Amino acid sequence: MNAVDVVLPCLDEAAALPGVLAAMPAGYRPIVVDNGSTDGSPEVAAEHGAVVLREPRKGYGAAVHTGLLAARSETVCFLDADGSLDPASLVALVAAVNDGARLAVGRRVPVARGVWPWHARAGNRVLAAMLRRRGVPVSDIAPARAVRRRDLLELGVTDRAFGYPLELLLRAARARWPVVELDVPYRPRAAGTRSKVSGSVRGTARAVRDMAAVLR
Ligand SMILES: Nc1nc2c(ncn2[C@@H]2O[C@H](COP(=O)(O)OP(=O)(O)O)[C@@H](O)[C@H]2O)c(=O)[nH]1
Ligand SMILES: [Mg+2]
């Protein structure tokens, strides 16, 4: 089996990382890309077997792009480091890419009430409907994906902040990529960690701003 690099953007996820890294399927190599965590995340990641990169530029997209540049496997996965997504879900996404998808993304299915704040979910729905009209069959703007490294580099996503996942899907639509969306369980983030994006008014406002910039 070919190894698969897994890029995990990380900001203050020290409490979540041990569980996330322990759940990596065999042959999946975690690359944790940290942006100035103050809770010791890089050290915890290294202790639990991850390659650790430090990205000086802030933002989800900056971390993801740096991880992509460092990855070496033919197919690369991306996953949040907060414990909300199971690394085991990546296996089916990679299989979809091996079966002909240019991009395989997760559709988050909450496993419990309150996992997914209503405002984040509503915003996602609107954006996903817009993507479907452009020919991308998705119902989520998901933080779990598998794609060939070379394809993603060629696609040329430029956002380095929180518009990255949306820009990626828009560019995939424009490039007429076959996109496959598969259900992935969405759990509460690990205890002792805090949401940086959709769990607060400030984080949500930032995500909306960055996604709106992508749509202009
Ligand atoms: N490197 C890096 N990672 C980030 C940044 N903001 C969020 N993340 C990570 O991106 C993932 C998604 O953020 P999260 O806080 O879970 O957003 P939520 O799911 O909307 O609550 C998590 O793994 C975060 O640690 C950032 O500025 N830099
Ligand atoms: Mg999260």
Automatic annotation (TrEMBL):
Lineage: superkingdom: Bacteria
Stored CDD domains? DPM_DPG-synthase_like
> Belongs to which family?
Belongs to the glycosyltransferase 2 family.
Q: Which Pfam families match?
A: Glycos_transf_2
- Residue ranges of every copy of the Glycosyltransferase 2-like domain listed in the record: 6-154
**Gene3D superfamilies registered for this protein in UniProt:** Spore Coat Polysaccharide Biosynthesis Protein SpsA, Chain A
What protein name does the entry list?
A: Glycosyltransferase family 2 protein
What species does this protein belong to? Answer: Actinophytocola gossypii
Query: What InterPro entries does its record include?
Result: Glyco_trans_2-like, Glycosyltransferase_2, Nucleotide-diphossugar_trans
Question: PANTHER family given for it?
Answer: RFBJ PROTEIN, UNDECAPRENYL-PHOSPHATE 4-DEOXY-4-FORMAMIDO-L-ARABINOSE TRANSFERASE-RELATED
